[in-house]
Hints:
Layout: H1 2-6, E1 13-17, E2 26-34, E3 36-41, E4 55-57, H2 65-74, E5 82-84, H3 88-96, E6 101-105, H4 106-115, E7 118-120, E8 130-137, H5 144-156
Parallel strand pairs: 4-5
Antiparallel strand pairs: 1-8, 2-8, 3-6, 3-7
Amino acid sequence: MPEQLQQGMYDLALLIESPDWHPPELTVRALAEEPLQLVQASFKTQENSSLTDLMLMTSHACSWRPVFKRLLRYHAYEHTTTVELPSAPAIKQCLLTSLGTSLFPRLVVQDELRTGQLQSVPLTTPLAPLQVSICWHKDKHLTSAMQAFIHSMQVSI
Length: 157
């Protein structure tokens, strides 16, 4: 999506990126920190699951994939079987059928955590949060409607 903003295909975008992500062509306004959660199906128990299970990864362009890779390296599981899937909904469907473990911003899995379909896997090392930001091209003229939307995002997130 950053590329589409730079090319003028989109006017605004809500993105979840690392806090130090600030492309020079874009205006990035931070809205909130977003913690990362390692998650799996709720009916898996600590005894029958670990980080050696199948890891379901997001695409290479995903902002939290490097964090996931570092997590696996830190726990010496970089050779764990991983499967890359094209979207968060596809990964969540796999998780719900107990096919592996994945890492997501809490915002992406909050409904499934609240309903008990997914559970967090405790980590010995806390992960740095990501940042939810609203972004636009630095040369983009902000209409009053766009300004109102930006303001509404700032007060609601």
